[in-house]
Amino acid sequence: MFVNQWSSEMTNRNIWRTGITGPSRQQVLGMIHMKLSSFSNWLVVLTLLTACGSVSNPEHAVNRLEPKESISAASIDSIGAVLSFYPNQTQLSIAFLEDSSARFYGAFRHRDTLRTIKNADNVFEIGSLSKVFTAALLADLVLNSPVSLDDPVQDHIEFALHGNPGFTLRQLANHTSGLPRIPPGLYWDSIWNMDNPYRNYDESELREYLSADLELEFEPGTRYRYSNLGVGLLGYVLSRVTGRSYEELLEIRLFRPLGMESSTTERAQVDRKLVTGLDKRGNATPYWNLASLKGAGAILSTAEDLAKFGIANLDQQHPAFQLQHKTTFTIDDRMDIALGWHILKQPSGEQYYWHNGGTGGFRSSMTLHLPSRTGIIVLSNISAGHSHAANIDELGKTLLKHLSHNPVMQKHR
Asked: How confident is the model over 298-312, as pLDDT tens digits?
């Protein structure tokens, strides 16, 4: 997720968004000693405090991970090193992508022992990784309907947006619309629903905010600020444009064509294969309901299904994915953004397409290197609020380096 404290997924500090982790105790103490200029700052502190106290006992972990043909010992060692920081019952489900094939490795911590398991078809919440799919829907509609990337959102909503803001579909997809990270009113509801913060934000709440209270934080197209609201709104608008639900759009335009049979936004469809999410202490935690903002992070999927999506992106033959990969905004000298994808720029000139995701009980990451047609997908059932949740992203980068001797990727924080 990724450049200040509230605008970047990289900073990993805001547990209300999908695709994040918690701060260290030192960061929390620093925040507490800051001068609080408004009540919203108190909410920031409260949010940060809830991320402390994660269970992390790497010294107790006994590594019994088994070797697997075609996966390097260094990769398995890296998997074990990351898993050792997480509580018992944590799973990692990993896909290694090369050209048009995928290999899978599953790992599980139980009674402080790390063991190899088969879990490539287990279902996880993928959080903000869903945003890449929402942007892919936009690209597909641009190529196959009268919709244009630069259409004002107002053109596709029947009620007037407060203040006539003028932001476009492209700007929703690349986080340059000027919208805040989440609707201001959602903070209050989140206080009382910390384990499922979006669940009550239904369509009536969204429409009320857009028509009466919407205020931009900057002129559209001039800055980048990561926004769950923005991409959630994009999913909502695409549903209005097509007359189909977000689930139907995904099924018709992406899941079914790619053979992603275990991917959905409806838990009842995959309940028997659904992994239990864990909070930062290792306790079972509720699944998230994104309500009217499904496009921001509502997808459930498997390593097998996401591998099919990743391979289709690496193949670079799908017109919608070709459009989606094009740079749409330069964030800084280390990062651009396409449609949904963040493009990590290395000193070597190499570029990696990346997005992560996280909810109260899950963390995910996908990293693709288009020139070598390689990629890594990591799914886990560890809370995005765990103090070491960012290790999921670093594991993906490390495994990609092992996979094809890709240049070492610098950290993006």
From this structure: 999 999 999 999 999
Q: Which residues of the chain have pLDDT under 70?
A: 1-52, 404-413
The continuous run of DSSP H or E covering 62 comes out as strand 62-64
Count of H-run helices and E-run strands, the chain? 13, 12
Amino acid identity, position 263? S
Q: In which region does residue 243 sit, left (phi positive, over 0), alpha (psi from -120 to 50) or beta (all else)?
A: left
Closest residue by Cα to residue 255 from 160, 137, 394, 357: 137
The H or E element that residue 93 is part of is: strand 91-98
Q: What is the CA radius of gyration of the chain?
A: 20
Structure tokens of 267? 């838990």
Question: For residues 113 and 179, what is the distance between their CA atoms, to the nearest angstrom?
Answer: 45
Q: Please state the pTM of the whole predicted model.
A: 0.88
> Hunting for tokens 């202490």 — which residue is that?
281
| Contact in structure between 246 and 142 (CB atoms under 8 Å) | no
